[in-house]
Amino acid sequence: MLVDTFNRVHDYLRISITDACNFRCVYCMPEENITFLKQQYLMSNEEIFSLAKIFVDLGVTKIRLTGGEPLVRKDFGSIVSKLALLPIKIGITTNGLLLDNYLEDIKKADIVSINISLDSLRKEKFKTITQRDHFDQVMKNILLCIENNLYVKLNVVTLKGVNDSEIIDFVHLTKNLPIHVRFIEYMPFSGNNWDKDKVFSNQIALQTIENQFSLFKLVDEKNDTDKKFGIFGHAGTISFISTLTDTFCSTCNRLRITSDGKLKNCLFGKEEFDLITPLRNGENIVPIIVNAIVKKHEKLGGQFVDYTQVVASTLENRSMIKIGG
Fold first, then answer.
1. What's the CA gap between 158 and 164, in Å, rounded?
2. pTM of the model
3. Which listed residue, of 43, 71, 116, 152, carries a Cα 20 to 30 Å from 138's Cα?
C-alpha cells in the first residue's frame, strides 16, 4: 500500500496520456501560444501499461485516463484495451467530441462510467468558453453514451459572471436524463488568468438550487471529492466539488502521472518526480514512488491555505492541460 505521513492510502491513479487538446478552454489553457509535446517525449503505449502495472502492484485499484484530451491520441483504443487486462476500475475524463469514434473500445474495456466536461448548455457560450464550435456534436455524444448504458458525469466548472446563471439549466437537464452533474469551483493554475473574484462558491450554488428544487442527500464514499444530492422527481443527480471553499485533502487518495512521465502527488503541488527516465533505463522506480508519497503535503500542495489570499502568479505549478485533469 502507498500510505503517506498523514495515513492517507493512495489507491487511485490518474494518467495523462497526452497534453494535446482539440479545445482551448479559457480556464484550462494559457492564452499565449502553447506547444504540445512531441511524440518522443510522450509516454508510449507500453510505458503507460508498465507504469500502471507497477502502481497496481502497489495497491492502486482505479486508473483514470486524462489529457489534454485523451481521445485525440490515435492509439487510445490500444491503451485502454491493455489497461483492461489489469484488475482495476478504469475511468476516462473527456470533452466528449470524439466519443463516437471510441465507443466500442470503451465498452470492450468494461468502462461503465465516463466524465464529460461541459461548461455551458448554450451553443454560443460553449463556443466562447471552449473557443470551438462543437456543442451539437458533444451533446449528441452525451446522448449516445446514455443510449449505450454508460453512466455519464458532467463536469461543470462554474465561473462567476460567465456560466453561473446556467446552474438551474443544468439541474433541469437531470429531470429526464439519468446523468450526474458535478459543479466544480474554478481553480488556480499557471497561465489560466485565475481571479478569486471569478470563483463561484458551491455553497452559493447549492443554495441557489435549493431555492427551486427539493433535494435529498446521497451517501458519499470516504474518498469522494464531491458531495452528492438527489432531486425529487428527477432521473439524474447533482454534486459539488468544493476544492477551494471546502477542501477534501484529509481523505485524498489520488496520484497523477503527467503525459511526459512525471509523478505529481497533488494537483496543486509544485514537486514532480521523474518516473519515465529511470523506467527507460531499466531502474526500479518503486523507491521514487514511495518517496513521492512521503513528501506529500497535508493540504493543497503546501502552496496555500486560504484561496482568497492566493496570488495566482506566485504559485509554482504547470497549467491544467499540462498536468492532466
1. 6
2. 0.94
3. 43
Give the integer Cα–Cα distance in Å for 200 and 162: 10
* Strands annotated E in the chain: 12-16, 62-66, 89-94, 113-117, 151-158, 180-185, 215-217, 227-231, 237-241, 254-257, 262-264, 273-274
Residue 293 or 308, more confident: 293
Q: Please, which residues have CB within 8 angstroms of residue 141's CB and are 6 or more apart in sequence?
A: 96, 97, 99, 100, 116
- 192 vs 147, higher pLDDT: 147
Note the pLDDT tens digit of each residue in 215-258.
999 999 989 999 999 999 999 999 999 988 988 899 999 999 99
Cell numbers that stand for 138 in this block: 458533444
CATH superfamily placement of domain 12-323: Aldolase class I (3.20.20.70)
Q: Which three cell numbers stand for residue 171?
A: 439541474
Phi, psi (degrees; rounded to nearest 5) at 309 = -100, 5
pLDDT, residue 116, reads: 98
> Domain ranges in the chain?
12-323
Assign 160 to helix, strand or coil.
coil
Q: Going by C-beta distance under 8 Å and a sequence separation of 6 or more, which residues neighbour residue 58?
A: 1, 2, 286, 289
